[in-house]
Amino acid sequence: MDHLPDNNSRYKDVDYWDERYKTEQSYDWLGSFSKFQHILENHVKKEDSILMLGCGNSSLSGDMYVAGFRSITNIDYSSVCISTMSARHSDCPGMTWHEMDVRQLSFPDASFDVVLEKATLDALMVDEKDPWRLSPKTTCFIHKALTEISRCLKPGGRFVSITFHSPFLRKRLYARTEYNWSIKKFSYDGGFEYFVYVMTKGEELSPEDAALEKKLLDDAKSPPAKVTTLHTEPDEDFLSNIDL
Question: What CA–CA distances, in Å, run from 7 to 82, 105, 139, 233?
Answer without folding.
Answer: 24, 28, 21, 22
